[in-house]
C-alpha cells in the first residue's frame, strides 16, 4: 500500500514555500449590466499581503471586477454576476453570506475621497460602532488613534478630531477614508483609482501608505497610471474589453509581457 507520510501530506496541502497564500479568487467571473456583458470569464487569483494592480484601457472592466470582490455590484440595478468569487475559499455570493460583514472584511476606498459630513473622530468611529467592535469610549479612542496612525494621518489631525472630515485637504481626506476602511479590521482593501483626485505630493503619500499597508492587508488597486502600478504593486492584471488578457509579477508585466496588447498599453500605444 502506498503510505503517505505526514511530510508528504503536508507538502500536498500547503502551498509551495515562498508562494503567498491566495486570499481571493475569481473563477470564470462574468458580469452583465442588463443586456450588456462587461466581463467574460475572468480567472484571477489575489495573493495575500501583496498589492495587485488592475490595469487596462477605459471601459475594459477593471472597476466592475473590483466591485465583484465585495459585492458592490449588488447595489447596481440590472447588474448580474456569474462564475465564482471566493474569500479564503468561501463563496462570497453564497446566499448565507452577510454582505455587511463581507464589506467589513473586504473594505473599499473610492476614486473621490468621500468622508462623512461628520467629525474626523466620527468618520473612524462609525464602522466599529455599527459592527459592535468596541465596548467602551476608551477602546473606541484607541481604535480611532490606531486607525489614523496606520493611515499615516494621525499627526496631522490629532489636535482637531472634533472638526469636520470634509474640512481636510483632498489628500488628507483620502487618508481619512483609508483610516475609516482600516478601522473595522478588514483583510482586503479594494482601491478604485484612489489617487486620481490628488496632487503629486498627496499621491506620493498615499502610495507610500499602500506599500506599508500590504504587510497587514491584501490590496487590490485599479489605476490608470502605469507608473503607479509599477511603483506600488507586486502583481499586475491587464484587462481589455471585458477579458483578462494576462497577469503576472509586475516587473515581468512591465518589462516582458506575453501579450502584445499589454505591451502596446504599457508603452502608451493605445488606451
Ligand atoms: N452601472 C453601470 N451600468 C451599465 N453599464 C456599466 C455600469 N458600470 C460600468 N458599465 C459598463 O461596463 C463596462 C466596464 O466598465 P468599468 O467601469 O468596469 O470599466 P473600467 O475599466 O473600470 O473603466 P474606467 O477605467 O474608465 O473607470 C463599460 O462598458 C461600462 O460602460
From TrEMBL:
Pfam families: ABC_tran. PROSITE patterns: ABC_TRANSPORTER_1, ABC_TRANSPORTER_2. The keyword ATP-binding applies. Residues 24-266 form the ABC transporter domain. Residues 1-20 are annotated as: Disordered. One of its GO terms (cellular component) is membrane. CDD domains: ABC_PstB_phosphate_transporter. Keywords: ATP-binding, Nucleotide-binding, Phosphate transport, Transport. GO terms for molecular function: ATP binding; ATP hydrolysis activity; phosphate transmembrane transporter activity. InterPro entries: AAA+_ATPase (IPR003593), ABC_transporter-like_ATP-bd (IPR003439), ABC_transporter-like_CS (IPR017871), P-loop_NTPase (IPR027417), PstB-like (IPR005670). PANTHER family: ABC TRANSPORTER I FAMILY MEMBER 17 (PTHR43423). Belongs to the ABC transporter superfamily. This is Phosphate ABC transporter ATP-binding protein.
